[in-house]
Amino acid sequence: MLILPPLWDACPRCQNVARQVIRGNLSIARLYSAKTVDEHDPDTDYSSVESFGDMAGELKRRKRKADSKRRQYGNTFVDHILVTVRGGKGGSGAAALQATLKGSGPSAPCGGNGGSGGSVYLTTSPSLSSLTTLKKRVVGGQGSSGSGAHKHGKRGDDVLITVPVGTIVREIRREGEEERTIREEIDLGLDEDEKRMRKWKRWIISHPSAGGEVSLEEYQGAETLLKKEGRWKIQTPSFEQQPAIELDISEALREPILLAKGGLGGLGNPFFDSPRIASRGFMPPIQTFEFELKLLADVGLVGLPNVGKSTLLRGLTGKKAEIANYQFTTLNPQIGVVRVYEDGRWSGELEGGSEIQESLVEREIEDLSRTLGEEFPNTKIQKGTSVRNGNVERIRFTLSDNPGLLPQASENVGLGHSFLRSIERSPVLVYVLDLSKPSPAEDLLVLKNELESYQEGLSDRANIVVLNKADQVEERVGKERIKEIEDVVGETSDIITLSGKYNLGIRRLVDLLVEKVEMAREVAKREKEEKEREELMKSQSGNKGYSFGMRRLEV
Ligand SMILES: Nc1nc2c(ncn2[C@@H]2O[C@H](COP(=O)(O)OP(=O)(O)OP(=O)(O)O)[C@@H](O)[C@H]2O)c(=O)[nH]1
Ligand SMILES: [Mg+2]
User: Fold this and answer.
1) What is the best residue among 59, 62, 329, 503 to mutate for testing ligand 1's pocket, by most ligand atoms within 8 Å of CB?
2) Taking the CB of the first residue and of the last residue of the chain, which one, N or C, has fewer CB atoms within 10 A?
3) Which fold is adopted by the domain 299-348+384-530?
4) Residue-wise pLDDT tens digits, 348-373
5) Which helix (H) or strand (E) holds 225?
């Protein structure tokens, strides 16, 4: 906690300090926070005491944590993964007999049916931007077995796989238990009778207390009944019979999509002619899916660590990205939406004079203001709705904040280049440089070099250069640095000098981004029309191309 809570009740000066913090005067709070209750003297002006107390310690701790996180997960931004998925197995039917009084005749079958297995569905979440959370194996809940007195088994639980928007899902393999068994039987060289008996044993269960073997006639009768119900042939449809699932999720899903259906539950003995027989639940096929993430942001921010990319994301979109004064605060790409209104204002815009705080400081201030029952104005970012104060939205685009790039990222230094795969897909790229550093022009060359060694021509796609932290630079020095950068980029890029933290110069950036995004969309539209024309011509000339029996669903 930044300010000592017990003090503001007792001391008007403390309350005054706390209110100053809420108005944004943090330096006072930092000095003040070192004092304990015992040390407190209401007559001392703590704003002149030189101590950074808790805040510095906490920052150090967080930096250590970020470093270890980077070492642990740094090179594992997951954007490609194979997942095996299976619906839950159906529960078995029961072969139970009703209890009867002695000598009152044969007991009636009363076994309940098994519950069907749970299915596996796919859904999207706006808070995800990596496939890291995906498990390699996902199985629906198993249905419970039926029991006596006509009690049917419970249905297995459905399972949701949650992915970020921009994920491509392809089913690449599908195999059921039946196919595996058939292969095994061929290997064992079994004859038809043996195969049939094995199949009966696999699908039909006899009541444990029924005594003796179930006769061939009983098995045959049960088989006929199951065939009638369409429950005998359970071979998995091949990709020719039922196309593989292929999804390109470019928008948030309104409803979950079914990937793997749960198996049917077995039938209880009232269904069969023989009271000693029930059937087993189905085991659904195992499906292998390939998940690939291509983050779909119109604009990608590229920069060295700690230059203020996440601060910019926050200022442009209002998205709460982690901001801190050390490298690799951001470990995975983050995507936010920029909504620009008719009057040129935008969704993440701050109120005049507000400042974007580091996350840690912001959380402490929020705690403090909650305790004091006051609202902290700096954290109030405009909500992203399509109509704001009667002002209509003009354009909406997405922006990705990426982890910091280091020299030799393409040789896996820092976080490596795994996340460049997402950057690669953004039609507009923005270089973010720290103008308060001695040589931002050299930093720019480093960035260009890294993009180029990842993919030829990629460095030229970035045609906006943002010079951030302008508030920290003396005018003369700043001008010299800007001149050096102009010499590097020549006519190829627009240069914008701004301060992300203090919300200065952002409007020019927004205007430029709108212009570039509109241009990029126009180009993409033309390319799409061109492609459609080509495909139409191809299909008219009878050449339908080679199909792998896959179905493409544009969601
Ligand atoms: N003075 C000043 N500080 C800024 C400005 N923009 C960002 N900062 C500070 O710079 C530090 C790093 O900001 P981040 O937004 O976390 O930087 P980043 O580029 O996302 O960093 P990584 O995620 O580690 O690559 C924080 O302490 C910010 O408060 C600015 O315009 N002026
Ligand atoms: Mg960041």
Assistant:
1) 329
2) N
3) Rossmann fold (3.40.50)
4) 777 665 778 787 777 777 777 676 66
5) helix 216-228
